[in-house]
């Protein structure tokens, strides 16, 4: 969609505007197209009422809010100074353009013809542009970008499209973040690291100087022995590094503490085992005592049974004797069978 914006009395058309396009993106595209630098702001004008738009406002959304009055709403891009006050636009001097190839009069655009007319003022040229061709600009997302009119350039030498607004803002934030000064704590740490690094460099330089002095005073045999010792030292340092790499996880595991923990566990297990053994012994003694009492009871029960059997036999004999004595009226005695 195209959006018409007035800049210093000249109406320009920006193509590629969507509902998500912000005022800052439109200002960026127009400033790049017109080669202007500074701070700009977009103003929404309805008849005699003007409203200043924020950089994050979306022009199409504001137009939709006006509904049937949207046709009477216009947008202007104005320059603001350091005090955030609106001031008049002043075109900055453009850099000298390179020599242009000769074009046939039929191929020349109306903008270049107007710019080449002698004795014409800027106001007259703007009036001709308003009555005739209007300059257009486009957002960075479209390839058909160009501004014709006051720039006086042909269609073959159009200004290249501006870079993407979001990428420019991201690069600007990155540059500002890199340029920020670190905090006090970070700066102190950085200063300590730098001082430590310089101390190491100084120690290395001093060591090399000492080695050079020794090399000047040593014989070839001593130098050879020294190199052998250096090689042995290097091997020993390498072995030490490997041993430390092996011992590091063992040290991190803290085996002495683990041993103490396991020793305490073993003591607890031994104590519980001893108490269990004592309980078993006590249970066995209780079982023996119960068995002895059971045997005694069985023995007493057997004695009671034998006594009961003896009493029954004596009673039977006495009964049979009494029956035999009382039968005097019969000739044959009768026997009682129990």
UniProtKB/TrEMBL annotation:
InterPro entries: N-RASSF (IPR033593), RASSF8/10_RA (IPR048945), Ubiquitin-like_domsf (IPR029071). Residues 116-163, 306-338 are annotated as: Disordered. This is Protein CBG14565. Residues 17-76 form the Ras association domain. Pfam families: RASSF8-10_RA. Residues 123-152, 316-338 have a biased composition (Polar residues). It comes from Caenorhabditis briggsae.
């Amino acid at each position: 969609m195209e959006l018409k914006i007035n800049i210093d009395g000249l109406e320009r058309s920006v193509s590629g505007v969507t509902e998500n396009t912000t005022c800052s993106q439109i200002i960026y595209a127009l400033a790049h197209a017109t080669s202007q630098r500074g701070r700009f702001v977009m103003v929404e004008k309805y008849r005699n009422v003007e409203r200043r738009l924020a950089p994050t406002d979306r022009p199409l959304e504001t137009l939709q809010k006006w509904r049937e009055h949207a046709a009477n709403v216009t947008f202007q891009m104005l320059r603001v100074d350091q005090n955030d006050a609106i001031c008049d636009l002043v075109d900055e001097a453009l850099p000298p353009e390179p020599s242009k190839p000769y074009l046939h009069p039929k191929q020349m655009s109306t903008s270049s013809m107007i710019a080449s007319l002698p004795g014409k003022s800027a106001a007259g040229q703007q009036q001709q542009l308003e009555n005739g061709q209007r300059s257009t600009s486009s957002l960075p997302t479209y390839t058909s970008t160009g501004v014709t009119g006051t720039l006086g350039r042909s269609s073959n030498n159009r200004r290249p499209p501006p870079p993407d607004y979001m990428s420019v803002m991201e690069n600007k934030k990155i540059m500002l973040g890199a340029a920020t000064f670190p905090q006090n704590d970070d700066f102190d740490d950085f200063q300590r690291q730098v001082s430590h690094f310089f101390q190491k460099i100084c120690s290395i330089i001093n060591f090399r100087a000492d080695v050079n002095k020794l090399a000047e005073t040593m014989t070839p045999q001593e130098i050879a022995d020294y190199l052998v010792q250096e090689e042995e030292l290097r091997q020993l340092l390498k072995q030490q590094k490997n041993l430390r790499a092996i011992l590091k996880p063992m040290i991190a595991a803290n085996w002495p503490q683990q041993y103490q923990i396991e020793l305490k566990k073993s003591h607890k297990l031994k104590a519980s085992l001893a108490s269990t053994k004592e309980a078993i012994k006590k249970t066995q003694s209780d079982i023996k005592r119960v068995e002895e009492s059971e045997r005694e009871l069985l023995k007493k029960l057997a004695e009671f049974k034998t006594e009961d059997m003896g009493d029954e036999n004596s009673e039977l004999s006495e009964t049979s004797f009494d029956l035999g004595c009382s039968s005097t009226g019969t000739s044959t005695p009768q026997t009682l069978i129990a």
